[in-house]
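Kindly inspect this today.
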Amino acid sequence: MGGFVSSTGYPVATKKQLDDPDLGPGFLESIQKIRAEEIADKSKGDALSKGVALAQGLWFTTQCLARLHQRLAITELEVATLAFAVVNILIWLLWWGKPLDVQEPMVVGPPKPPEAQPIVPHQRPRLARFLYAINGGLVEEDDKYNPHLSTSVPLFWTPPLPYDYHYWTVGITALAGSMFGAIHCAAWNTDFPTATEMWIWRSGSLVIAAIPVVFFLPVFLCVIIDTTFKKTILEKKILEKKIDAIMAYVFIGILPIYLLARLILSALPLVALRSLVPSAFVDVNWSIYIPHI
């Protein structure tokens, strides 16, 4: 949904379309005439709604930090919620200028293109879409997507980019995933109802924190090899294919373990609510942070 489309309904999303000698100039002229205010006006979210959501996440994070400072107990459910809150804060900051839930696209280009091709929905199998959605930020590239035969842009897609960008994408994704797991590790010494639950929580937290790093290791090693040894274009292409193959095998191997750990860390905080320490019911004393005479 949203974005730029031609008068025939297919997306205008690739450099190849803009470089087209027949349609490209019309697309460029139309896009340049569209003001940023017009795009922002289509967004379902404004600074107020985004600010409220961001403030809620920051307020919850502040409460958790205050409880730590006052040596009050933080429940496993609060720790799990804190992990999601931190991730959401980062997403909101990165997407602050992104139009939200734009439904109606903007039509650009000439009203009657020289040749109209049949349009079919661009849709991957459900399993393929699921794997693309969680496979470390790897996205479909331009040469695998034909906008002239589609009514929409794939959910996870990018124009052709240098392969180094994929290294950064996987690296940042691994860092975010490890941070998510590391926050769960903050409850390492929390009072659990039983020792079994404590060790299950610790194991699950370590798995969540470590697996993103394990997933990134093959890419890191290939980057070292690629930067240390001089290679031809053909050799680099072969290296890229090896990276993709290694990451695919690693991903398939660790996915069940990761999903199991996430499931455990989602259920265990709810189970632990049956037996909480007394300090978990004590409110934060905010007055000690307010300057007074």
